[in-house]
Write a structure and sequence with these properties.
Length: 222
């Protein structure tokens, strides 16, 4: 049994998708950002950085793993799924996983903050992160022009890490115009049952865009 500590965010959805794809039994613990639950001592004891997601593997002496990329690698190695054993192919998957972790996630996250949530509109910051997000999309589009998936012909944890972010490109204000290969990949993964289940685990909080923006404004301006 895997205990998953998570919330309805792209980083959280990575792990719920992976658990569904790998067929692992898991139990969801949803953290409430509005009450700052991720910063409480109980969760800090699991992840000192106070961020979701994190897991506890009850079948491995209650082993704790935090950071979404590290969790994906741990689960792939635990199950032998979604990460090739052949060294070069394995490296390619890890390279694209790191591309998401160091590029797509941070740039889109900052685009979200400055485009949607920050109380003061700073055009230079909005343009910077949207432009860099678009550039990263173009890199993926080129890769997907000759590959079915990000790391080649196999669906892997690199795709799982990246898809939950790319699918919210409109929220980040990043357009997909002309990126036909990236759009093909986006649509194809949306048909996978594990992706469909993963992005509603946990269910998103029902609130308007304005209410959500106000809630996150409080978090990003603290």
């Amino acid at each position: 049994m895997i205990d998953l500590y998570t919330a309805a965010t792209p980083n959280g959805f990575k792990i719920s998708i992976a658990l569904e794809e790998m067929g692992l039994e898991y139990r969801v613990h949803k953290l409430d950002f509005s009450s700052n639950e991720q910063k409480q001592p109980e969760f800090i004891a699991i992840n000192p950085n106070g961020r979701i997601p994190a897991i506890i593997d009850r079948d491995n002496e209650d082993f704790v793993v935090f950071e979404s990329g590290a969790i994906l690698l741990y689960l792939a190695e635990k199950t032998g799924k979604l990460l090739p054993a052949e060294p070069k192919k394995r490296s390619q998957v890890i390279q694209w996983l790191m591309f998401q972790m160091s590029g797509v996630g941070p740039m889109m996250g900052q685009a979200n903050v400055f485009f949607r949530y920050f109380p003061e509109k700073i055009p230079a910051a909005i343009n910077r992160y949207q432009k860099e997000g678009r550039r990263l999309f173009e890199v993926m589009n080129t890769q997907l022009a000759t590959n079915q998936y990000l790391a080649g012909d196999e669906y892997t944890i690199a795709d799982i890490a990246t898809w939950p972010w790319v699918r919210i490109h409109e929220w980040s204000g990043i357009n997909m115009d002309g990126l036909t290969h990236l759009q093909r990949w986006l649509d194809e993964l949306a048909l996978r049952p594990a992706c469909q289940k993963g992005i509603i685990t946990p269910p998103p909080v029902e609130m308007s865009d304005e209410e959500r923006a106000k809630q996150i404004q409080k978090m990003v301006t603290k």
